[in-house]
Amino acid sequence: MIYAPNSTVDKQLVKHSRDLVRKAIALLRKSDHLVTEHRLRDERGEAQTMPPRHDERKSGQDR
After folding, report:
1. For the residues 14-26, what does the mean pLDDT come to?
2. pTM of this prediction?
3. Cα separation of 49 and 42, whole Å?
């Protein structure tokens, strides 16, 4: 946190910081649909580039 020796200035800084945090959270909430689409795209890309995984149950039954 930012501290100013002058209590009036300090209060203004705290108020301004809180306002910025509120605005940032509001932007994040509004952008959730964008983030979700990017996350899905990235997961699909990773699934295509990763080698297939071996199923542990199948390998245990083959023994």
Report:
1. 93
2. 0.47
3. 11
The answer to whether the beta carbons of residues 10 and 3 sit under 8 Å apart is: yes
Residue with tokens 């542990």: 56
For residue 16, give the amino acid letter: H
| Residues 6 or more apart in contact with residue 2 via CB below 8 angstroms | 13, 17
Q: Tell me the three state secondary structure of residue 53.
A: coil
Integer Cα distance of 17 and 10 in angstroms: 10
For 3, residues 6+ apart whose C-beta sits below 8 A from its C-beta are 10
Q: List pLDDT tens digits, range 22-62.
A: 999 998 888 888 788 888 888 888 887 776 666 655 555 55
Largest Cα–Cα separation, the chain: 75
